[in-house]
Design brief:
Blueprint lengths: L1 E6 L13 E5 L6 E6 L3 H6 L8 E5 L11 H10 L6 E5 L3 H11 L8 E5 L6 E3 L2 E7 L7 E14 L1 H6 L6 H8 L3 E3 L2 E3 L5 E13 L17 E5 L7 H6 L5 H10 L4 E5 L15 H9 L5 E4 L5 E4 L5 E4 L3
Parallel strand pairs: 3-4, 4-5, 5-6, 12-13, 13-14, 14-15
Antiparallel strand pairs: 1-2, 1-16, 2-3, 7-8, 8-9, 9-12, 10-11, 16-17
Helix pairs in contact: 7-8
Length: 320
């Protein structure tokens, strides 16, 4: 799975960062899922390799505007761009009514169907090649984290066993590999007895605003990549709690306690300048997190692209 960041600022955009939006891209790079859709997200998509025609679902973490105000415009652009396939939207209660009223009062016609799912009652749901689930977080309004799971199932012929039985290589082996049973020298050989099935699960958890990382307990199990907001540094820990947010040290400490291998911080307050600039800057957050977290740490910026490989290691690809 890949992760592509469309917006990494909290509250308001800056000259360098748009407000929240992130793509989770299915293996193969064709189909994708959008988590949050702050104002201007569709503009960010135009500067990315993503296509609205290949968008499978939109998951909104909570109702605050920096996470959803770009939704009507994006839906309209998808329609004007010729989208015909239905689109799933998973969101807190209220988003469906708001979107439908917006369509009504702006005379917006969509040439495709929207399927709404209330996140409060969401059960694990297969969308594309991923399974999506959610859990509640702690914020000033109901906020949620989404889990994206990809199950990679591969099959491999038991070469040693086949050779020991004298079954010749060629069409017979090919038939078993495809899932067929075969006949050889008057005997039936069943596919399931000669093929080894390997299943590898990869899980990415993307969080909305959250001042209590331990609300992820249980849900975080099996997580390969945790994407979490880091609105402030520890200097503003009291302020962070008052407004329902985390700071870098808090989430880094939690990730370390849960043995998370890959942590991506995002959703930075506009008060912090880009990395490498004088303090207060994103560099302060990196230092704070590195002091307590021993896994792979990344601080996202707009249009950064990450790939989770087969062995669970996360790599940053070249910026768009």
């Amino acid at each position: 799975m890949d992760m592509y960041f469309l917006g990494t600022s909290s509250g308001v955009p800056t000259k360098d960062r748009n407000v929240s939006g992130m793509a989770v891209i299915e293996p193969g790079g064709k189909y994708w899922h959008l988590v949050d859709c702050g104002e201007g997200t569709q503009h960010q998509i135009l500067r990315s390799p993503l296509s609205l025609q290949k968008l499978q679902s939109i998951a909104i973490t909570h109702v605050h505007g920096d996470h959803c105000y770009g939704l009507p415009g994006l839906l309209a652009s998808a329609g004007l761009g010729g989208r015909k396939d239905p689109l799933k939207i998973i969101a807190p209660k209220g988003i469906e009514a708001w979107v439908m009223e917006t369509l009504k009062h702006t005379a917006m016609f969509l040439p495709y169907e929207i399927e709404f799912f209330a996140v409060e009652s969401l059960k694990p749901m297969a969308v594309g090649s991923l399974t999506i689930d959610a859990t509640a977080l702690s914020h000033r309004v109901p906020s949620f984290a989404y889990g994206f799971v990809h199950q990679d199932i591969s099959t491999k012929l038991d070469h040693i066993k086949l050779e020991s039985e004298g079954i010749p290589r060629g069409p017979l082996w090919g038939a078993l590999q495809k899932g067929d049973d075969i006949e050889f020298e008057g005997q039936t050989y069943r596919n399931k007895d000669w093929v080894q099935v390997n299943s590898i699960q990869k899980k990415v958890v993307v969080c909305g605003d959250n001042d209590a990382p331990d609300s992820l307990d249980g849900f975080i199990e099996g997580c390969d990549v945790l994407v979490h907001e880091s609105t402030f540094t520890a200097e503003f820990a009291t302020r962070a709690k008052e407004v329902g947010h985390s700071h870098a040290g808090l989430i880094a400490s939690y990730a370390q306690s849960q043995s998370i291998q890959n942590l991506i911080l995002t959703h930075f307050s506009a008060r912090y300048a880009p990395e490498g600039k004088p303090s207060p800057s994103i560099s302060d957050m990196r230092i704070e997190a590195e002091n307590v977290f021993q896994g792979q740490l990344f601080l996202a910026s707009d249009h950064t692209h990450y790939r989770l490989d087969a062995v669970g290691s996360l790599h940053q690809l070249s910026p768009c």
